[in-house]
Amino acid sequence: MLYRVVEGEIPLQTDHLNVCHAWGIPNRIYTSVPVETDMTVSILFVCHGNICRSPMAEFVMKDLVAKEGLSDKIYIESCATSTEELGNDIYPPAKEELRRRGILFEKRCARQMRKDDYDRFDFIVAMDSRNLRNLRSFCGSDPGTKVSMLMQHTGEFRDVEDPWYTGDFA
User: Fold this and answer.
1) pLDDT at 8
2) What's the whole-model pTM score?
């Protein structure tokens, strides 16, 4: 079932509510009311080069979504803020970590964020504060409040360190 975020104050006795960790967001209240069958939610994960963190996030999220039977309801992609790795596939140690965890992935080409991505995606999730800052040139002032940092959804406001530099792909 696809959950919709309920905005505002919700009385505790309201029926059909779940407090869950959907999308890695703890303690958000979601309705358990099914949404229309044609509704699709779209998520774009963003990092510097689109060869490590954002494609790993893309394929981990695709795996989670598939396990919940929601692949036809949630569309997921990833991209870069820079042009440094355009056309390159996922970095080999990132692929190895995905394999180690049993996460399926496919060959892909790194791509850069485009201004029209802001209109195409419901959620734009940056891996670190530098990516967040660089997204301003593509998203402007974020009038739709679509842009966030990944760890913000876990209740923390911190960067996901770049394994290209740290060597830590886990």
Assistant:
1) 40
2) 0.76
